[in-house]
Write a structure and sequence with these properties.
By secondary structure, this protein is an alpha/beta fold. It has a single domain (42-341), classed as Dihydropteroate synthase-like (TIM Barrel). The chain has helices at residues 79-92, 129-146, 159-168, 185-192, 218-235, 255-263, 283-289, 302-314, 325-341; strands at residues 42-45, 50-53, 58-64, 96-100, 152-155, 172-175, 195-199, 243-246, 276-277, 319-322. Strands 8-7-6-5-4-3-10-9 form an eight-stranded parallel beta sheet. A two-stranded antiparallel ribbon has the order 1-2. A hairpin with a 4-residue loop joins strand 1 and strand 2. Helix 1 crosses helix 2, helix 3 (159-168) runs parallel beside helix 4 and helix 8 (302-314) runs parallel beside helix 9. It is globular, with a radius of gyration of 18 Å. The two termini are 25 Å apart. The model is unreliable at 1-13, 15-30 and 113-124 (pLDDT under 50).
């Protein structure tokens, strides 16, 4: 069971709580008090281990073994460089290494459909499960050999990839579609008994630039849909203590929508699950920090990223997913001290 300490009077989550039950019901922790006002404590059960969430912010390091990811596509496509980068992030303090073999940048062709439980080919050259596995499995296998204690995550929405990765040693499946992009994914992760990050996505990557704007109403939509998708995961057999939620910054959200989502991030605690914030190098940061109309390249978005990381932690994020682990680790340490001071 999750251990958690609610932030004041417990409010039921958005409209999904209308069924009369609190989806976050679990045993309260009497041990995690210092930041209970903003961040509950949980024991997140993974495939073979557990992670304590809430006492400090955990860091998930990004490792893209792709030729076309928005931030570092091609930089770690070959095994030696991918392995070196993973070990570097572990040395810098990463608690989890999240390995991805397919880009889901804006405009990317994918095999995922926006409809629940359906999979369909999108226009363009989508990455097949076989291609994805060819990229990620050697990295997973080598990391298991040289760093057996490392906690590894696979960033995929394909059940075939998730199964092979977990069987190779991964402990977490990070699904950007919220288990909705592959009809077999919910039952697969339930059977694998691994940790699951259930992320909110609005539409498919190739549709994001044309989605109608929602403004601040995006917060209610994200909360409502994440609540429904979490309940669907539980109904499919995924254990509650294995779930973490991610509101999906940048995934079908425009500039006017990402900042309200960040400012009201703490409202997602109503859902009763641990929370991940993945804002690193996202395009909404560019519009804020650009000078004289010149776009800032991904590697130049560090300071803006650290501002969003800090804001998310102060709003109750349990883990942050970042490219720049060392810098984020320092920012998280300071933010955690602020949370301690609010006791």
């Amino acid at each position: 069971m999750f251990h958690w300490l609610p932030c004041g009077p417990l409010r039921l989550p958005f409209r999904e709580a209308a069924r009369g039950k609190d989806p976050g019901q679990s045993r309260r922790s009497s041990e995690c008090r210092y930041n209970g006002r903003m961040r509950p404590c949980f024991q997140w059960r993974l495939r073979r281990s557990e992670l304590e969430l809430g006492r400090r912010t955990l860091i998930m390091g990004v490792l893209n073994v792709t030729p076309d990811s928005f931030s570092d596509g091609g930089a770690f496509l070959d095994l030696p460089r991918a392995l070196a980068r993973a070990l570097e992030m572990l040395a810098e303090g990463a608690d989890v290494i999240d390995i991805g073999g397919e880009s889901t940048r804006p405009g990317a062709a994918t095999e995922v459909s926006a409809a629940v439980g359906q999979a369909a080919a999108s226009p363009g050259a989508a990455v097949s499960a076989a291609q994805e596995l060819e990229r990620v499995l050697p990295v997973i296998q080598e990391l298991r050999r040289v760093a057996p204690a490392a906690v590894l995550s696979i960033d995929t929405y394909k059940s075939e990839v998730a199964r092979a990765a977990v069987e190779a040693g991964v402990e977490i499946v990070n699904d950007v579609t919220g288990l909705r992009g592959d009809a077999r994914m919910p039952s697969t992760v339930a059977e694998l008994a691994c940790g699951v990050v259930l992320m909110h996505t609005r539409g498919r990557p190739e549709e994001w630039r044309t989605l109608p704007p929602m403004g601040a109403a995006i917060v209610e939509l994200v909360g409502r849909e994440l609540g429904a998708w979490a309940l669907a995961a539980l109904a499919a057999g995924v254990a509650r203590e294995r779930l973490m939620l991610d509101p999906g910054f940048g995934f079908g959200k425009n500039f006017e929508e990402n900042y309200p989502l960040l400012a009201r991030f703490d409202e997602l605690h109503r859902l009763g699950f641990p929370l991940l914030a993945a804002t690193s190098r996202k395009s909404f940061i560019v519009r804020t920090v650009s000078r004289d109309g010149q776009a800032v390249p991904p590697e130049g978005r560090l300071y803006g990223t650290l501002a969003t990381v800090t804001a998310a932690i102060l709003r109750g994020a349990h883990m942050v997913r970042v490219h720049d682990v060392a810098a984020a680790r320092e920012a998280a340490a300071v933010a955690d001290e602020i949370l301690k001071a609010e006791e």
